[in-house]
Amino acid sequence: MEEVQSFTGKVSDNVERVIIGKRDVIELTLIGLLAQGHLLIEDVPGVGKTMLARSIAKSIGSTFRRIQFTPDMLPSDVTGVSVFNQKTLEFEFRPGPVMAQIVLTDEINRATPKTQSALLEAMEERQVTVDGVTYPMKRPFLVLATQNPIEYEGTFPLPEAQLDRFMLRISLGYPSKEDEIKILDSQRFRHPIEGIEQVVTVQELIDVQEKVKEIHVEDLVKRYIVDLVSMTREHPDAYLGASPRGSLNLYRAGQVRAAIHGRDFVIPDDVKALAMAALAHRLIVSPSARIKDVDPRAVVEDVLQSVPVPGARARAER
Fold this sequence. Notes:
Elements: H1 2-15, H2 23-34, E1 39-42, H3 49-60, E2 64-68, H4 76-79, E3 80-85, E4 90-95, E5 102-106, H5 113-116, H6 118-125, E6 127-130, E7 133-136, E8 142-147, H7 160-163, E9 168-170, H8 177-186, H9 202-211, H10 219-234, E10 238-240, H11 244-260, H12 268-279, E11 284-285, H13 287-291, H14 296-306
Parallel strand pairs: 1-8, 1-9, 2-5, 5-8
Antiparallel strand pairs: 3-4, 6-7, 10-11
């Protein structure tokens, strides 16, 4: 697992020059990247969501595009459009910004559902279809979407199908006072994003993405993952629980976290550490629970407390 640790160490150190004091958030972002998942960053403006995406793209030398979602955007503004060439008398495809390797979709909930749905095929199948022609995405492909959890005017809540395609939901949060002072010092003359350079290659990233798939997951841990997800569907405060995609994403994310921490096997602590980020955004609380201000995070926390953690195998099984 030295290869995985070396990769994540280099990228984390590089990104932390820009995103100060948020090592745990950077690790979650890299878990999503190495597990080939997409991330939803739900946080207030000005905490560094765009800089996080840009610094990761610069660290691995991948292409980066930012899409500012607005209510008047069309699906073709995201995926691209076919344009008639007067010289060749043929239609030519002009790719949209989603065709980059790392895509930041800023304020995704400001676009209409029709435009939001333009991302569904790209996120799940790594391809876009325009005028009946399918164009594959270039590896790696990561969507970092942001949304403001406070402001609701002029926004369109993400549908369940869209939310379910995000592997993890993360939050940067405000920095501590000491870290905020460091941020002021680091930007005295210029923004640190201008000074960071590529530290790994895209091919190294692809190799590590394949490497983490070899991490062993014991049957007991698999059962633990399924039990957690099943409990979210049966919880009295849940109207809609996590899907099988949630189980799979928790499984893959657990493999990456184990590798980052130097293990070639997943333990229940990996699952517990990732359950909130992997499951909470997939849940819809019941109307009665909503009246009582029950949050999906509270449901996941209750599930984690209720489902027994698998321990060592009983002697009788040996």
